[in-house]
Design brief:
Helix content: 25-40%
Strand order of the largest sheet: 2-1-6-7-8
Radius of gyration: 16 Å
Strand content: 15-25%
Largest sheet: 5 strands, parallel
Number of helices: 7
CATH class of the largest domain: Alpha Beta
Number of strands: 8
Distance between the termini: 23 Å
Number of domains: 2
Order of helices and strands: HEHEEEEHHEHEHEH
CATH topology of the largest domain: Rossmann fold
Structural class: alpha/beta
Shape: globular
């Protein structure tokens, strides 16, 4: 359904790149890339969790190492710059590790002048998604499209201010977790991500 909503891109497939946010987004990204006849790769960002509450995102780190924090939340919680910088450094190391684990030593594709479709299996707070979109924009993509099956209305509205276009199939309220909107939502393993990328490369 998501691929169908993006069907207008099929006519310009030479200029389209699909970037999936691992791990769950890789399954969705594969379907979109296959339907559009576009190459598939990854965009990895990592959340910076609040002190004592790692699930609460106070910011995120792009795969280029840029820190995108939530100044209001950081100030409200009294989080120090030292903490943010320390956590950011850890997440940069983890991003590098995952990129090597999933992609090996292959050079990252040029996004300059391309229509880039950033795909995930859904968004909740949107912190890591926002970082992904901004990272892609800094790589001089011509058009940045966010494509997700589901997300809360307020988060989608915020992300629409960053992306050139947002395709979201459903924006239900109330919204508790992405998994509640899937009949099957099993954990996606590293091996599955590597295999999807391998077969995607062979098909190009």
């Amino acid at each position: 359904m998501l691929a169908e909503a993006l069907s207008s891109l099929r006519t310009k497939k030479e200029d389209v790149v699909v970037l999936a946010i691992p791990r769950g987004g890789v399954l969705v990204g594969k379907e979109v890339a296959d339907a559009l006849g576009a190459p598939l790769d990854l965009i990895i960002t990592r959340k910076i969790g609040a002190p004592g509450n790692p699930e609460l995102a106070i910011g995120a780190v792009t795969q280029d190492g840029e820190v995108i924090s939530d100044p209001e939340l950081v100030g409200m919680l009294g989080v120090s710059d030292h903490y943010v910088n320390e956590q950011a450094a850890r997440q940069v190391d983890e991003i590098s590790r995952r990129m090597r684990a999933y992609r090996g030593d292959r050079p990252y594709p040029s996004l300059a002048g391309k229509t880039v479709v950033v795909v995930d299996d859904g968004v909740a707070t949107g912190s890591t998604t926002r970082a992904a979109l901004q990272s892609v924009k800094r790589r001089n993509a011509a058009v940045v499209i966010l494509a997700v099956p589901v997300g809360p209305p307020d988060t989608i509205a915020k992300l629409a201010k960053i992306a050139d276009r947002v395709v979201c199939l459903s924006t239900p309220e109330p919204f508790f977790a992405i998994g509640e909107f899937y009949s099957e939502f099993e954990q996606v393993g590293d091996d599955a991500v590597r295999e999807i990328l391998r077969t995607a490369r062979l098909a190009q």
